[in-house]
Model the fold of this input.
Amino acid sequence: MNVLLIAMIVALLIPIYKAWQDEDIWQKMLAFTSIATKASVMILVVSVARGDWMIGVVGAIVLSVGNAGLMLLAHTIKQMNEQ
Done:
C-alpha cells in the first residue's frame, strides 16, 4: 500500500514540473487538471484502503466535476489572450 502511494505521489510531481517549466497558459491548465485527476484517484485509493466511503464520495465528486470547470477556465483565458 505504501509503495503504491509513493508511486502515485511521484506521478503527481511530473505535471507539477511541467506546469513550472512551461509558459503557455493552456499547457499549465492541462497540467493542473492532470494534478487534480491524480489527486482524486489518490483520494479514492486511500478511501478504499481505509474503508471510509465518505472520503470516496468526495474523491468521486472531485474526479467528475473538478476538471470541467478548470478546463472551461483555461479555454476562456486562452480566448481572451488571442483577442
The chain has one domain: 2-82. Residues 2-82 form one domain.
